[in-house]
Amino acid sequence: MGQINSCMNRLVTISQTAPSIYKAGIIKTGNDFWARLLVYFSIFLLSADLIYKLYFGISYQNRQDCVLYGHLPRWAFLFYEYFIELFLILIVGIFLAALLEKYFARFGRFVPRNPLTAFLYASIIPVCSCSAIPVIAAVKDKIPLKTIITFIVAAPLLNPYIIIISAMVLGTKYLILRIAGSFILAIFTGYIAEYSYKKMNLNEIGSLWSCRSHQGCHQSSASLYEKTFAVFKKVFLFMLAAAVLSVAMELFSPDKLLANLDLTDNYFGLILVILVGVPVYFCNGADVLFLKPLIQFADLPLGTAIAFSLTSTSVCITSLFLMAEFVGKKLTAIILASIVLITFLLGLIIQAIPL
pTM higher than 0.90 for the full model? Predict the structure, then answer.
């Protein structure tokens, strides 16, 4: 009987201490396991995809050389490109943002504090417009709004690969104008966004990307992997809608219209390339490769080419959906209008300067 009582006492002790062990993270939750598996799997696939593209020189412009393009129906390849790849990018991007937030205090001095440093950081880090939002969202409470928007706009416009391919394919004149145009566009858009935000007294930005404003997130106890999955669930429907629209734009192929139209007229050419450039998806210098034959054989003005590069890389359907949930629909509309107007003015200015 004494042994039985001793065993019972031990069981009671274990049952009382189990919750504390669970809270301390010694025993992982089922959600943490699946979230961790999802993050690892996404990192593996995205890394494999990147290595394959770099090794074989696959880009948006020559994606028909991709092995999947040749073995899948077009609808299946588009599904992979706009659904699967975007899914992987978001998962990895949100995880990196959660990681950055966790270790922010340790590496805080490397976070951009003003629009100038935001532009410089964004020009070095090779991220697209979709992954730039979750990355900068991790430190949204630490830096001004103008710095956040400058980073989001500038990130897809420039990176070391784009700089190199721009100089090699279209020359130093195009490269200098692209860098100057990207700087003006990102900086001015950031200031306009912050002014509008204060003037209109809009709601706090980034609530969708943070657990602190939502019940049930358990911000303090959840692991990085659970936080990643929690944020991803909030943006999943918007990612889905953006992917559907991107596929529709791909099937419609508005960018192909440029090759069949006379774009030498300053006003008509600028308006057309901006209308086409905003919804289409170009990244990592694909716009440079697309512009090469138009500049060489169709006499595309340099100002029009710069306008197309700025609009086709700074925003797209997917990034607009994500930005709307990050800064709100009103501010997203203001940012988009700013990008369109500033790009149009930059194109006119470049056209007027004898180069």
Answer: no
